Amino acid sequence: MNVLIIGANGQIGQHVVRKIQESSGHNAIAMVRKEEQKAKFEEQGVKTALVDLEGSIETIANAAKEADAVVFTAGSGGHTGADKTVMIDLDGAIKSMEAAKQAGVKRFIIVSAIGVHHRDRWMNSAPYYSAAKHYADVWLEKSGLDYTIIRPGGLTNEPGTGKVKVAVDLGYGKIPREDVAAAIVASLENSQTIGKSFDMIGGETLIEDALKTL
Amino acid sequence: MNVLIIGANGQIGQHVVRKIQESSGHNAIAMVRKEEQKAKFEEQGVKTALVDLEGSIETIANAAKEADAVVFTAGSGGHTGADKTVMIDLDGAIKSMEAAKQAGVKRFIIVSAIGVHHRDRWMNSAPYYSAAKHYADVWLEKSGLDYTIIRPGGLTNEPGTGKVKVAVDLGYGKIPREDVAAAIVASLENSQTIGKSFDMIGGETLIEDALKTL
Q1: What's the DSSP call for residue B212?
Q2: In this predicted complex, what is the ipTM?
Q3: Which of A89, A151, A153, B37 is the most exposed place for a label (fewest CB within 10 A)?
Q4: Is 0.90 topped by the overall pTM?
Q5: Contact A128 B94 (CB under 8 A)
Q6: Which of B135, B140, B143 is most worth mutating to test chain A (most A CB atoms within 10 A of its CB)?
Q7: Helix A11-22 crosses helix A177-188 at what angle (to 10 degrees)?
């Protein structure tokens, strides 16, 4: 499977690219914005697409045309301004969905954030961030694409444990970015995750087994 | 017809309230956020609902329960921060649509902005503003409500002329806020505007006649 990773240079994205390259039968196409990012991935033997997510749907669709799946891990992270949150987390995500459709790619996996499907759990400090994630998720659910929406808890840089807890609704918890990436790759290989949206935190169950409970 | 005006204290909202009160057979319910705004409208004999648009859908639905139509004219105006744009122009609008549905109100008229249905016409200086308006409009089109989406050009405080130009796509032009308000009230009385989304600028055609061409 050829997988276009949008946001490949991000903290989760880099894990996703590496895990896809390490897996058998998958190839990553790292979508990046800057020449130096492109060079870095190419040195690692990773195929790249130089595309600005704030550009046109057509340029994103062009990057997706050799892909069998799109993984959207781009995100302003909640620490940039609200303007970038709208243009990346909301509009960038929606453009990517439309681009996938234009390119005939059915499979689409997005990284959202825990609890954003409940307005009363939106971040007090940055409700616009939760709103942007939520509306992108809703758009995807209505897109007709074969979607998986992963809503991880608080992201850490701890090494992955390979074990998680997943459910439609979970209380707050943390999870290593590496485990989020592993769950993305496992979802690509598990058609049972199609049409599913779920919270995910660190847990006691192997990722592959956890995804089977959805 | 009882009409809930969300954003009643705004520049367009105040014109809408006045025109509805002057019309025969309609009554305004001015939804406002502050006690002093409520007092001001009540002094003018206008019914009010004291509701924070950044609050719950239920409180908005409660304000809508005696209404036959909802007019959404609230807006951060593109001059506040992007965070408020997301929470008012996008999330506030969508919550109002959900509230209308909860309250059993079918008719919903929203004030959008010229050209936002074309990404290449989004404001360079504030694309997040155009994005927020656009996604609220798309949500409304898919809501199942009896919608009208009015996308006026550059708003002025000139006195209304009662004459406009309307079409799905128009080049940029200006229009007095008073004429936007008049078009809202005329749309309430014209079922032909249901399910229509259109640009509107100042023109040569009487508002009532212009709306019939849609």
Answers
A1: H
A2: 0.90
A3: B37
A4: yes
A5: no
A6: B135
A7: 50
Name the residue in chain A with its Cα closest to that of B78: A83
Give the closest residue to A72 by CA, choosing from A170, A4, A168: A4
Give Cα A154 distance to the centre of its chain.
15
Model pLDDT for residues A78-113, shown as the tens digit of each residue: 577 899 999 999 999 999 999 999 999 999 999 999
The reply to whether B131 touches chain A by the CB within 8 Å rule is yes
Q: How close, in Å, is residue A194 to chain B by CA atoms?
A: 23
Q: Is B132 on the interface with A (CB under 8 A)?
A: yes
Degrees to nearest 5, angle at CA B63 with B62 and B68 = 105
Here the tokens at position B25 are: 């057979």
Domain boundaries, chain B: 2-211
Per DSSP, the residues of A111-161 read E--TTTTSGGGS-SS-HHHHHHHHHHHHHHHTS-SEEEEEEE-EEE-SPP-
CA A118 to chain centroid, in Å, comes to 20
Examine the residue annotation and report whether B147 is marked as an active-site residue of this protein. no
Q: What is the pLDDT of residues B124-150, one digit of tens each?
A: 989 999 999 999 999 999 999 999 999
Angstroms from B35 CA to nearest CA on chain A: 24
Helical pair B91-103 and B57-64, crossing angle rounded to 10 deg: 50
